[in-house]
Backbone:
């Protein structure tokens, strides 16, 4: 028995199922760990019970932290690689799965059947919104029956605005830009463009794994 | 656009490359765009989180040989499942979970393929002696301490402390009851803390 004989009185007695010599210290570790998992500080009385208790807590906290830092260090230690791995991933994803509904376009010939995919329209909306200085478009929804020509359609977009931009003015600019783009490129009957600013973003530094 | 530019000027995007602004986008915006089918937003997520997933996979597997495959498979699954992700701002934790599952799948395969080998006994990839001297001693010691755990203990520890999984989730992934996971983690912690004794 290397550890203190002070058995933490709140722990479940596991000695029956695990007859090992380190049982007391093992139980102590579990009790302390449960406090850490709950985001609580272990009670003072428990830590003051024996110098070992505080040392054990320190070791546990340190190890948990170091494990997380270890991976960040691994990333930092990784030598620069070519872009092959990114290209391989991108070559294996398929945008067709996001095409969405098919939106009809009028054509003078009765035998022509023209349409544009909902996914492509969303792409237009994003491009138009992104072109407004300091903004990035997030989710985009076309509400209404886009498959029926002339149906009233509401465009709902979420946007992130660069820190320091005036949000209301920027939202107006986004709305105008999207309306113009859809008028130019589609025949959708847009009755409203709802812009919800969900984020404010800053310029990111090179350090991603905070 | 006529909006007056009080803020930092928008850098011009060289043709064929990512717009700089998308690099600055928060995860939530990127996840929503990728869910809507924007491969460029997805590419930013891949570059931002891929390296950590690779490091995680390497630690889980005890070597780098399968890390790229795990990361690749994870992102392909992620692309398919992104429309089901509720909170785009938690995309990083979500990606790590997918990477966990992909790593576990391979660990299971190894077990089936090589029942006679001590398939887990290999230590994490060793580094050149010169490099070893340079790295922080704590990191080296932690690596050694983790290498001293049994493979299942090490995986449970990583799933818990890095992947953020609950005991139930770890049990599900490793096909063992949560009570066994608790026991595994208890023994892992005990070993790690004992290891720390030598550090003081």
Residues:
């Amino acid at each position: 028995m290397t550890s203190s004989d002070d058995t933490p009185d709140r722990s479940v007695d596991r000695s029956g199922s695990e007859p090992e010599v380190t049982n007391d210290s093992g139980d102590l570790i579990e009790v302390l760990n449960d406090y850490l998992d709950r985001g609580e500080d272990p009670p003072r009385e428990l830590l003051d019970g024996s110098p070992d208790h505080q040392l054990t807590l320190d070791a546990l906290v340190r190890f948990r932290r170091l494990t997380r830092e270890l991976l960040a260090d691994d990333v930092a230690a990784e030598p620069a690689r070519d872009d092959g791995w990114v290209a391989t991933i991108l070559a294996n994803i398929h945008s067709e799965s996001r095409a969405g509904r098919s939106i009809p376009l009028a054509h003078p010939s009765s035998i022509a059947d023209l349409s544009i995919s909902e996914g492509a329209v969303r792409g237009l909306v994003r491009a138009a919104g992104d072109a407004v200085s300091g903004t990035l478009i997030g989710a985009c929804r076309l509400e209404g029956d886009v498959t029926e020509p002339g149906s009233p359609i509401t465009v709902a977009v979420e946007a992130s605005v660069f820190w320091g931009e005036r949000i209301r003015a920027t939202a107006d600019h986004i709305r105008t830009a999207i309306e113009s783009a859809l008028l130019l490129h589609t025949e959708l009957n847009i009755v409203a463009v709802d812009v919800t600013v969900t984020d404010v973003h800053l310029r990111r530094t090179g350090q991603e794994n905070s | 656009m006529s909006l007056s530019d009080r803020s930092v000027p928008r850098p011009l995007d060289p043709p064929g490359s990512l717009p700089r602004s998308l690099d600055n986008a928060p995860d939530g915006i990127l996840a929503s765009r990728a869910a809507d089918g924007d491969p460029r937003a997805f590419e930013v997520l891949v570059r931002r989180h891929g390296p950590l997933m690779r490091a995680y996979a390497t630690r889980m597997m005890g070597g780098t040989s399968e890390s790229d495959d795990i990361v690749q498979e994870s992102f392909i699954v992620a692309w398919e499942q992104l429309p089901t992700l509720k909170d785009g701002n938690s995309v990083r934790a979500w990606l790590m979970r997918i990477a966990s599952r992909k790593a576990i799948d391979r660990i299971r395969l190894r077990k089936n393929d090589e029942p006679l080998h001590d398939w887990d006994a290999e230590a994490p990839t060793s580094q050149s002696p010169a490099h070893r001297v340079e790295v922080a001693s704590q990191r080296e010691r932690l690596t050694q301490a983790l290498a001293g755990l049994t493979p299942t203990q090490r995986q449970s520890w990583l799933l818990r402390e890095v992947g953020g999984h609950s005991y139930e989730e770890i049990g599900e992934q490793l096909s063992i009851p949560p009570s066994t996971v608790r026991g595994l983690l208890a023994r892992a912690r005990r070993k790690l803390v004992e290891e720390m004794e030598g550090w003081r």
Notes: Chain B has ten helices and no strands. Chain B has a mean pLDDT of 78. Chain B touches chain A through 70 residues (CB under 8 Å).
